[in-house]
Amino acid sequence: MEKVILDVDTGIDDALAILLALESKQLDVLGITAVNGNVPLDYVMRNSKKVLKHMGNDEINVFRGASHPILKESFHEFRVHGADGLGGALQDIEVDETEPGIFAPDFIIEQVQKYPGEVTLIMVGPLTNLALALRKEPRLSKWVKQVVVMGGLISEGGQGNVLPTSEFNMFADAEAAKIVFHSGSPVKLVSLDVTMKTFLTKEHVEWLHGTKYYDFIKESTEIYRALSEQKIGINGCALHDPLTVGVVLDPTLVTTAKYFVDVETKSDLSYGQTICDFKNLWNQTPNVEICLTVDHERFITLFLDRVKR
């Protein structure tokens, strides 16, 4: 099985990504690293542990990471994920507050150094933890197998979810993303261009009726689905983070190409924008493998199949 570390800011779609990663039975999850993002870090720790306990996998360690971005003030998305980050689900689950005595960036360095060329980092939150790890140990970029990132917006200008040109994970810590993109790490970017085509609809949720996770998925995604219906007329939850896990499980779900990509960190109008130089106007070496298309129907089928099991 492929060795992975799952870096999360749990949130609703992060929770679904954890479900998919573990229920796929294809990944050796070395640990989960938590980062400030969708909700504050304490919420992320608690939510991640709740999901693991609900699954019966609470032996997997959750490592506390960065509690704030590298430079900017924290930005959270309670309107999407609810007051607790899980849309009010799993309220009755109590979790052990004990934590491993290692900082998440140090855990990333430790594991990638221990298994050089074998570890995939699945990054579905702001990239603060990885940026800190790379600053401490630049050789990490040569040791890691691949870094699969949920974030950014490449071709769908004006379709961002924080600013017209910016996606949340990039906007939450653009300086961290810039460090990662320029580190020499093998980065694959799963952006809104493809994730916004993968909706878990109300009808899909009902297909899970009678299965272990039906109640959790129905309850947790309700606020997210309602917001999507209000904004774009679809009662559904875009599977941003689960698709990122899906791309690791089955790379043929997407078509990709490698280009030079940079991140805007100075403009008030476009902070966090991921800019792809399709025509090589900057004459720079390609540094990011971007996703061009997604077989969204096959991915939704994969997600439902794994979660049903």
Task: Write structural notes for this entry.
The protein has 309 residues and is of the alpha/beta class. The protein has a single domain (2-308), classed as Inosine-uridine Nucleoside N-ribohydrolase, Chain A (Alpha-Beta Complex), CATH 3.90.245.10. Helices cover 39% and strands 18% of the residues. The chain has helices at residues 12-23, 41-55, 78-81, 104-114, 128-136, 140-143, 168-172, 174-181, 192-195, 202-207, 214-220, 222-232, 240-249, 296-308; strands spanning 2-8, 27-34, 62-64, 119-123, 146-150, 187-190, 199-201, 236-238, 254-259, 261-263, 274-276, 288-294. It has an 8-stranded mixed β-sheet, sandwiched between helices. The protein has a two-stranded antiparallel ribbon with strand order 7-8. α1 links the parallel β1 (2-8) and β2. α5 (128-136) packs across α8. It is globular, with a radius of gyration of 18 Å. The relative contact order is 0.16. The model has no long low-confidence stretch (mean pLDDT 96).
